[in-house]
């Protein structure tokens, strides 16, 4: 008889635990939905990610242009510095101005014939333009 009593006690304990888990799951879903309602954008708002990615693309373009201007000024101050020439040429290449980047590397290569990074960048860009 004690086995039957233990078995029925265990099954009611499992049912009680399952009910508690269900209640916690429902409460969690309600909290999550409440948080979504407070954020102002619903789960089906598909325009928000598009606007964010468009804004990020515009920011990237302006950041790249700013970086190119900065590296260009640094290169203009020291046109014989191979590292500044490579940095400026890479930024120009990223902006799509490959011919100008090639001219920068060509000028710097005249002063730094043995610089490996400069020569490799110059060679890759020359092959890319052919």
Give me the secondary-structure topology:
Layout: H1 2-39, H2 47-77, H3 82-95, H4 98-111, H5 116-129
Helix pairs in contact: 2-3, 3-4, 4-5
Fill in the keyword field for this structure.
Serine Threonine Protein Phosphatase 5, Tetratricopeptide repeat; mainly alpha; elongated; 0% strand; 2 domains; 130 residues; 85% helix
Explain the overall architecture:
The chain is mainly alpha-helical and 130 residues long. The protein has 2 domains: 1-44; 46-130, Serine Threonine Protein Phosphatase 5, Tetratricopeptide repeat. The chain has helices at residues 2-39, 47-77, 82-95, 98-111, 116-129. The chain is elongated and about 85 Å long. Residues 44-48 have low confidence and may be disordered.
Oligomer class? single chain
* Number of structurally distinct domains: 2
Biggest pleated-sheet summary:
none
| Topology as a string of helices (H) and strands (E) | HHHHH
CATH architecture of the largest domain: Alpha Horseshoe
Report the sheet-strand fraction: under 5%
CATH topology of the largest domain: Serine Threonine Protein Phosphatase 5, Tetratricopeptide repeat
Shape descriptor: elongated
Question: Roughly how many Å apart are the termini?
Answer: 93 Å
Helix percentage = over 70%
Kindly report the average pLDDT value.
76
Q: In CATH, what is the class of the largest domain?
A: Mainly Alpha
Q: Which segments are poorly predicted (pLDDT under 50) over 5 or more consecutive residues?
A: 44-48
Figure out the total of helices.
5
At the fourth level of CATH, the homologous superfamily of the largest domain is Tetratricopeptide repeat domain
Provide the structure class: mainly alpha
**What value does the Rg take, in angstroms?**
32 Å
């Amino acid at each position: 008889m004690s086995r039957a009593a233990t078995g029925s006690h265990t099954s009611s304990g499992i049912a009680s635990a399952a009910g508690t888990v269900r209640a916690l799951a429902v409460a969690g879903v309600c909290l999550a939905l409440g948080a979504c309602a407070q954020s102002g954008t619903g789960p089906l708002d598909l325009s928000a990610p598009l606007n964010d990615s468009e804004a990020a693309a515009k920011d990237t373009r302006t950041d790249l242009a700013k970086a190119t201007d900065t590296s260009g000024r640094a290169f203009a101050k020291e046109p014989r510095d191979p590292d500044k020439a490579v940095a400026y040429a890479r930024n120009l290449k990223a902006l799509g101005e490959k011919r100008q980047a090639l001219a920068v590397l060509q000028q710097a290569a005249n002063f730094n014939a043995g610089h490996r990074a400069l020569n490799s960048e110059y060679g890759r860009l020359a092959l890319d333009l052919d």
